[in-house]
Write a structure and sequence with these properties.
One of its GO terms (molecular function) is N-acetyltransferase activity. By secondary structure, the chain is an alpha+beta fold. It is built from five helices and five strands, in the order βααββαβαβα. A five-stranded mixed beta sheet has the order 1-2-3-4-5, sandwiched between helices.
Length: about 150
C-alpha cells in the first residue's frame, strides 16, 4: 500500500535516490548543501515536497515538488509550479505517477491556485501523454527558459 504525504526530515535519502534516477549525471553532494537546502524547503511556506511511500517496503517510490507562489493578478490568487516529478524507474507505468500528480494538484487547488504549471525537458511522447492524462495542456501557454551564462553557472 502506498501513502501520499508531505516529505519529512527523514526522507532526504529516499528523495535523493529518486532524483538520481531523474538526473543521473548530477554529482553526489557531500558538503552538506543538499541537507541544508532540504531543511530550507521543509521550513518554507508554499514549498512542499510530496512523496508516495510504499509502506510494505518502507521506501519512497515517487516524489513531486510543489511551489505555491503568491500573486497579485487573478484576484490575488496564487499559482503553482510542479517540478521534479519522479517515479521509481522499476515501477513506472503502474499508476503511481498519476496518483502522486493527483495529490499534488489537489494540494495546489486546496491552496487556492488558479493554475498549475510544469516544464519537461523530455521529448518522449509517453511523458507528454502522461502529463496530458494528468490534466495539463501543452497548448495553453508558451514556455521559455533562460539559464545563466556558462561562467556564472555552478
Amino acid at each position: 500500500m502506498t501513502v501520499f504525504r508531505a516529505a519529512g526530515p527523514d526522507d532526504l535519502d529516499g528523495i535523493m535516490h529518486l532524483y538520481r534516477q531523474l538526473q543521473p549525471g548530477d554529482p553526489v553532494l557531500d558538503d552538506g548543501s543538499d541537507t541544508a537546502t532540504f531543511a530550507v524547503i521543509l521550513g518554507t511556506p508554499g514549498l512542499t515536497l510530496f512523496v508516495l511511500e510504499d509502506e510494505d517496503a518502507a521506501r519512497l517510490v515517487a516524489t513531486t515538488y510543489l511551489n505555491v507562489i503568491p500573486n497579485l493578478s487573478r484576484s490575488a490568487r496564487p499559482y503553482a509550479v510542479v517540478e521534479n516529478v519522479v517515479v521509481d524507474e522499476a515501477l513506472r507505468g503502474t499508476g503511481l505517477g498519476r496518483r502522486i500528480m493527483a495529490g499534488t494538484l489537489q494540494a495546489a487547488w486546496d491552496a487556492g491556485c488558479y493554475k498549475a504549471m510544469l516544464l519537461t525537458g523530455s521529448h518522449d511522447p509517453s511523458t507528454h501523454a502522461f502529463y496530458r492524462a494528468c490534466g495539463f495542456s501543452a497548448d495553453a501557454k508558451t514556455a521559455y527558459l533562460a539559464r545563466p551564462p556558462a561562467a556564472a553557472a555552478r
